[in-house]
Each structure stands twice: as structure tokens, then as C-alpha cells.
Specification:
The chain has one helix at about 105-110, and strands spanning about 1-5, 10-15, 20-25, 35-40, 45-50, 60, 70-75, 80-85, 90-100, 115-120, 120-125. The chain is mostly beta strands. The strands form two sheets. Strands 2, 4, 5, 6, 9, 10 and 11 form a seven-stranded mixed beta sheet that branches. Strands 1-3-8-7 form a four-stranded antiparallel beta sheet, with no helix packed on it. The chain is globular, with a radius of gyration of 13 Å. The protein starts with a strand and ends with a strand.
Amino acid sequence: QVQLVESGGGLVQAGGSLRLSCAASGRTSTTYAMGWFRQGPGKEREFVAGITWSSGNTYYADSVKGRFTVSRDNVQNTVWLQMSSLKPEDTAVYYCAASLIYGSRWSSLVRDGAYGYWGQGTQVTVSS
């Protein structure tokens, strides 16, 4: 079991920045990758960014590339999503998720089915 708790969401003006945190506990030693997903109003949940727990390899959705940065600290068992140059279309509930499927490629890790554990989500609202 892996428990995930997100924090750091809020209301920000377009062009602003926010940093989301995801604190992991439980069997984090078995985690292969962490992903950030989001679900906007009336939209399906979509992949935003991910990072492999051991090597720190990262991958981003095209819509956030160059604006968002994912990072992790294996000692603190925490993953962050630094979001800059925010746009109104970034408004969503943001979720972190943990995948225990070792060796998965990013082609699989962009799908929410690859993740067995999810946080409760944190709301990010970007005003124009």
C-alpha cells in the first residue's frame, strides 16, 4: 500500500506560478514511477507529468512542456510539480499517482491505468 497526499493548490492569476506537493508514505520502496494527472471541468483526466522514482527520469505532456517541472526527493518521499506561466486552461483538480509496475515505458505511464495508488486531488484555479 502506498498513501499519497497532495497539497499546494489554490487560486492564481494567469501567468503566475504554483508548486504542488505529493507526500508519499507506506511501501514507497516498491514505487517505480510517480505521475501527475489533472481533470478539468467537463474533461477527462489527463496525464501532465511523470518521474521515475529511482533514476529521476521525467516526461511531460506537450501542453505543459517548458512550463511545468516535476521533481522528487527520495529521502523525503515527496514529489513536486512546479507550475509556471499558468493559463486558464490549466484549471483542474490535480492528482498524484504511484505506479508499482517496474520497467514501464512512458507510453504506458501516460495512462491512468498504469497507476495503482492515487491521492485525493488538489484544486488549481487560474483566473484570466
